[in-house]
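LOG
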Amino acid sequence: MGESQQAAGRVEWPSPGQCPGTGTSGCPSAEETELLQRWNSLATGFRDLTDQLLADAQREIGLPPSLLEVLCFLATAPEQAAPMRLVAQSLGFSTAGTTGVVDRLADAGLVERRPSSSDRRVTYAALTPLGRERATATARVFADSVRRRVVEPLGDEGFASLAGAFASLELAGDPLTGGGVSTRSAGEATPESG
């Protein structure tokens, strides 16, 4: 696959006569190819947009994207704290990746770990007062970037429609997706630096 095809999120499959094996069993149909090309464009576009939004925030705030993601998540969590497992699931980080990010945030004085009052197996990541300041600044920069890069081009209704369409998919209960949670190490597929 050439770089221009990768950039566009498109895969060109060989024509049926060029497929490996016998008949057309080695290649997707034209309908399947179109469907996969649309999906690849959507998935690539979403990843690229997320990377751009995080890069905008990184330039303004000076923290790596994985740390910014956790700050934004905690800023909107009840009492600005969440169980580490929930942080990992919500952001698609591995357990080890989440631990590393929270360690870095704790070392910077932005987050503290708190034990659960009801379950000693659960540890919460909670924003400190300095963390609240940084999280608020991060949320403002990120929201401004979303407005500029997404809402302005799509319009308020287009953005609401897109968000509603994604929310309506409800993958969390789908047994084929394993609960709809994919794990990646913190910072994977993001413009990580520093």
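LOG (cont.) second protein
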Amino acid sequence: MSRRALYVETVIRTDLDTLWAHTQDPELHRRWDLRFGEIETSGPGQFAYRTRVLGLSIGGTGTHAGERRRPDGTRTSALKFGSQDSRSLIRSGAGYWRYTPERGGVRFVAGFDYETRWGPAGRLADRAFRPLFGWATAWSFDRLRIWLETGTPPERQAWLAPSADRCRRAPARRRDGVAPSLLSTLERP
């Protein structure tokens, strides 16, 4: 991951299996994640997504893999994604989710980075887009936290209930921001 990579961390008072289910099941995932309107499985280890950006419907595809049983008790999910849609600022990217059981809950971490298209104009646009994408990820993590801790479904939460400020946006320890080796085993979509 580059120094521009996005990082989001929160602790959710739930059990590991419940958090895993709500992040790995496309139907549950799309309900809490502001970044995606649709997520569908398109084959083993493959998915398709669709989102709306400035009123435009943008789609892409990805590959993913998960380590559900690790010797240290953690879990990891890794993905590579991209869009062939020339309207999408994001050309391709990669990331991971790390699930670490703690007393009273699970520390849930995301790290991801992406490459832009449109040359210098894309790099300029990304100066505004990247912070918004990081904010949307953190806001979504808090939306998920509220759902799992209180039982209030995302659709019934007030828009101001989740807060990106409740999430850490930089690794506390150096190893927290290191991508898992599982990521290198995935093919590009």
